Amino acid sequence: MRHQNKKHSIGTTSAHRKSLLKNLAAEIIDHGKIKTTHTKCKAVQGYVEKLITIGKIDSIHHRRLAYMKLNNPEAVKKLFEEVGPRFKTRNGGYTRVVKVADGRVGDNAKMSFIALVD
Question: What is the predicted pLDDT for the residue at 108?
């Protein structure tokens, strides 16, 4: 049975989707806010929320878990030194998705910002 196995349909293969989520999550941690299509924002939101929850406790085990999910040492370092401690007292809801009124120029795709709260 396929209960709770639905992934966001980004229109790519599973390997490309995993790579895309890792790169988008690293960019959100790096810059605090990015602009991309609405579907990608919704897909990466849960991924980043789980990473920030991991980043709240600084231990070797949690760093290794984060590195497995990000595969980017600079992003892992920033996650544990800046982003994680910032949300120490918050129990979830670390990101917000804000829709942009205009579509993308080439194909008029719905665009959104995904940003860290605060």
Answer: 94
